[in-house]
Amino acid sequence: MDIIFYHPTFDAAWWLNALTTALPGARVREWQPGDNEHADYALVWHPPVEMLHGRELKAVFALGAGVDSILSKLKANPEMLPEHIPLFRLEDTGMGQQMQEYAVSQVLHWFRRFDDYQALKQQARWEPLPEYQHDEFTIGILGAGVLGSKVAEALRPWGFPLRCWSRSRKAWPGVESFAGKEELPAFLNNTRVLINLLPNTPETVGIINQTLINQLADNSYLLNLARGVHLNEEDLLSALESGKLKGAMLDVFSREPLPAESPLWAHPRVAMTPHVAAVTRPPEAVDYIAHTIGQLEAGNAVSGQVDRARGY
Ligand SMILES: NC(=O)c1ccc[n+]([C@@H]2O[C@H](COP(=O)([O-])OP(=O)(O)OC[C@H]3O[C@@H](n4cnc5c(N)ncnc54)[C@H](O)[C@@H]3O)[C@@H](O)[C@H]2O)c1
Ligand SMILES: O=C(O)[C@H](O)CO
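Above: inputs. Below: predicted complex with nicotinamide-adenine-dinucleotide.
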């Protein structure tokens, strides 16, 4: 079996070695421009069109959870990967735990009013504030997939009312499930902390805008862990200005790296990280890909295949 690998920043030597160990007998090589030799599988992130074009591959694996960048490339270059070649993505592979850590720590930060105490400290003010109550801190998770479910699971023991929104209804213990566009208003009503874990699709671009934010509880908080294009950054700034939103924690931005002139950098109620909420963990990713290839070779059903028409 021949496997080609391409990632703009990962240590290819490490991956080649790990894949060869996990798939004994496989010949794994780093793809280089001009390499048109046979391959059965391709492991990629931001691949050049010519890497995949014209190949009769058994499958392609995207080396991340979100497939928006490869799907938009495929839209512009459909010949790059014919529809009959399946595209897989990473499901969890350690990202779930990272999202849990991020979400739990940030929700508790807001719930315990550390943002307020930080602001008071700037003014050298010693001022105990009233406690927030769990029942006034409803947490709504947009996107109830692999990562949304892990975040819900980690938040459950903390006693906050939990709800999720997705295309189809979920039956998760302790989580109220809302499904489809028609139930979005009910999901937003009274939500105090909105956590975004949707995929980037034509239906979800710009979803966190003024209309959506206005339906949240007053003094609410936004945690964007998915993609920058989900959020209208001007509407966010207006909502912070009006007081509708009390704070935002952003990991992803409409332009990355965030341009120096963005007002988000200096905003006192916006915190941020540089798209690191959940990164690909190579050992877990290799295990997952090796297992999936083994299942595909054995003709067994596997999960993680991207539905190109749906966009995720
Ligand atoms: N910031 C980071 O570091 C980072 C890391 C990993 C993933 N992500 C992002 O997180 C996203 C989610 O990952 P995942 O593995 O949980 O994806 P997933 O495909 O398992 O889950 C997606 C969820 O969104 C819901 N959904 C999709 N379109 C919808 C629509 N139009 N209306 C309602 N619900 C809709 C689905 O029903 C599903 O519940 C990824 O697509 C990626 O963009 C970000
Ligand atoms: O989708 C992912 O895996 C991360 O956001 C990296 O882009």
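The chain has a mean pLDDT of 98.
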